[in-house]
Amino acid sequence: MALQAIIFDIDGLMIDSERVSQRSWTQTLGSAGYVLSEATYLQMIGRTEKDVRHILADAFGAAFPFDEMYSKREVRFRELISGGIAVKPGLAELLAHLDALGLKKAVASSTYRKLAELKLESAGIRAHFSDIVTGDEVARGKPAPDLFLAAARKIGVEPPACLVLEDSQAGIQAAHAAGMRSILVPDMQPVDEATRSLAYRTVASLHEVIPLLPELMA
Q1: Using an 8 Å Cβ cutoff, are 2 and 102 in contact?
Q2: In the chain, pLDDT over 70 holds for what percent of residues?
Q3: pTM of the entire structure?
Q4: Would you call 204 exposed, middle or buried from its count of C-beta atoms within 10 A (0-12, 13-18, 19+)?
């Protein structure tokens, strides 16, 4: 089916926020005596709050005070992005190109609504998206397909006519489960070969998405 819509992830795909997020988690947990390993943080990328709760319980034990740490971490994250968040190379050009082509756009992010909105506003790209679906609005987060299927319903496009842009392993797996093509734009998290094989292409930046659009729209 010819391409009709693009569904965007936020963190690590459109905005350079994963390293900021890692810093906010590391500082918050460190102040409480917890050491967040790189391996544990990488597991958290692309996952919902509920999934992160389980990941941190596995890392630090069932008594880990998740709600307290999550709240303090959000305060720290907001402080760190108070001056804005940088967008990823090629995003502005890609958004302008999609508008010129008349393709629909949506956002599907594992983060919850208020924080997703804040991130988009801080990066100066909120006005580009009227349709947003977030992790607190679906039953299951990535790698389940719920977020992407909800986004497709919201914009009125069948899943096979949607292209997902993702940086995370869970995101590519979710797109595949939703019956959508995907393009992987890797960021911090390593993506294994089995998951890479699910993507239509793997590219180095959003700049490289533009030349692939004609073949997807044919």
Answers
A1: no
A2: 100
A3: 0.94
A4: exposed
